[in-house]
Queue: 4 jobs
Job 1
Amino acid sequence: MATTDVRGAAGEEAIGWSGRVMDVLGHVSRLLLVQGLWLGGALAGLVVLGVFPASVAAVRALEAPSAPVRAFVVAYREAFGRANLAGAGFQVAWLVVALDVAVSSSLPAGIASAALAAVTIVGAVSAVSAAYAVVALARAPRATTRTVVRFAVVAPWLTPGRALVVLAALGAVAAALLTAPPIALLFGASAPLLVHAALIGPAVDRATA
């Protein structure tokens, strides 16, 4: 009986481990799938018009209980106009940041350093707010664009700890792009969006309840 009990316990432990491995593989597979969908959605909108709706659709696909491809396609179509309208301000901010970085190289050293510090802060703040906007668009599809933008601008300042974690996830993507492009290509959008949805989603739910 003791031998049977030991074998039974070992068998249950093996089944438990295999189940956990399958869960991990399932999550990784979904991240890879959503990453591919995100890339396709971004390219379908010629990047400029595709990034925001693809990001919103990716959050929906990551959170969908089943059929992530269908969830992505439906969300992409539904969110295309609203996502681009909400994201326009952030894209303008990033364009200004890029222009300032390009111009700063021709400025005196002291002024260039101050300018780079300023645009870095602007870029970081706008990136975090954009992440909040994406999750809000995905979680509250009936919210007005004005409500989404207001939430994205105000909410990070109300919970700075959460905003810093969101910023850290974005920083990890930037670091991966510079040091490990293959990893960024495989998980550069889906992984941070999964983190953002987990962090920001409850705040969106409370704000729209």
Job 2
Amino acid sequence: MASTQPSAIDQVLAPTPFTPQPLPAATAGGLVGFLNLYCLPVEYLLADPATDGSTILGNLQLAPNTGWYELKVTQNTIKFDETPKAARGVTTYATKVNATRAQNGDEGAAIWALQGRRCLVMLRDMAGRLRLVGSRESFLVFRSGSEGSSPSARAGIDLQFTGELSRPAVYYAGALPLVGGGVLSGSTGAATGTGSVTVKNRKGELMATVQAGQTIIIKSGFRVALQIQ
């Protein structure tokens, strides 16, 4: 009579038991999308940080006198896509980060300096959280260009980071030093620094004093004109 007990080989190849985990509550407001785009040449990251699978534990270790460079882009144009691909038992992620900015003729040197560079990307979402895309061994490559299919397209520059990554993007709750000064906090999405801005109405009356790192939100049913001094 044949044995019904699994062999040693069967035991090794048996699938790992799966225990479903409940999804956490959705972020308040349920907003999706990204507000800001930052990049860092991969050689400036000295060591890949430890993660718990979805969040980086601790601060990123950067080379001295370096920081993240913010790419100023048009609002609501940042697109992030990571598509899993399985081959020979290994899963990789075809990753793209795209954005568009208006072309004013002054950005040529800065954009050209980034062409073909191996970079890491940090995205800040609507909730103020940061997500790191890439690692020292698995990075994105920057390219830019423009198209002339319409007047609006000719007036803009398309920015693109692409790469085949070994892991999906992870959240980052540590400090993010920026080129030019200031530090962004992944836990709050707020920048720290010094100084303040006074907000006045058209009569010159003081409405508020805004400290560095705070955000001004202007709400009006009519067109608003701003004058910054």
Job 3
Amino acid sequence: MTTAPPKHARGKHAKPSSGIATGWNRLIKNAALGEPGRRRLVAAGTGTASVALLAVAAVAGLSATDSRQAPRAETAARQAPSAPAVQQSAAPADDDPDGLPDALPYLEGKDEDKKTTGHVKEIRRSGDFVRIYTDLEEGDENSKPAVSLCEWTTQFLRDGGDEAPRVFVHGKSEGNGSVVLANKQSDKDDCEVSETR
């Protein structure tokens, strides 16, 4: 004759009850069988645990609400109309990593009547070089405005701590790119381009 397994038999690999669960079950069992004072203590403990559980649920609910609202704000920001395009000027925005916002005011300080700096369309850093884009024509190689812009920019860079300034002054070109009207590629250069360029 075989005997039936105990009512709460566990499998070979079952985890034993945690100490907290065992203590809680014992407390409830004793309270149900024991005296009224102990029953009140268990009821108070159960009530406290319920309040704590409700507080945790409320905090979790608020967090979920905040996380659902964040994507809505991001979506609204993406769908907002963009600002109208601003015409690019010779002085780039301060947040442009290649821009030199202080260069044009420096050059204008050297050019009282603004005849030379009036040709400047853009000043940018390009690697180790500074490039000045102008509205000067392709035939204006070594012209007074081109060479002056090169020399003044070289001085601007030296004043800023650049020990080996490299400057290119560009003009308009019929072909691809911008023609070089004046440049300083080494300490020996005098900002004039040679006839072979």
Job 4
Amino acid sequence: MRDYVKSKDFHRHMRSLLVARFQELGWQSQAAGKCSFVQGRRVFWLQVSQYSNSLTGGKFTLNLSGGVGAAGDTRILRHLEEADRAIGKALEEHIIARLPRPVPDPDVEVVGDDGGPVMVKLGDLAKANPRQWDGPSDVWLPYFSKSDLDDWAAFLLPRLDRLTRPSTPEIIDPMTWARRFDHLTALFRRR
């Protein structure tokens, strides 16, 4: 029987899987207890769904906030490329198929693709939100055991550089824009 990973152990295990890659990318690990990293004013963290439990397992997503031009928290899995989405969907189906199921297969309430509650058989969890992997949408990654987390880490590690790369407004020095604006206003003052 596979053991369900509780939130505290989830963060500890995912931190151990991701910390080396984040350090390679120039991020620093934040305080113990959560899987989060910081780079300048930018913060990356994993968020576990409040609806996680030992019957249906858990779900988590990736968040990135901070930096110039960032508008609040950003779910970065929205930015997966189409090929990544196909791989992620296949991995999700594989992980859900491994969920331990009591007999008979129980009905469970989950959040459906419209945001409302949906009753589905435990074995049909992947069907509860079938458009999750259609881009761009809010993607939550299911897990039950540490082996599921290992699989998600293997999926995420080669994509972290692209997913956490600053957007153009964050790359450009704000002083550059101030100098450009001063130059432009000086042109109008001369007339």
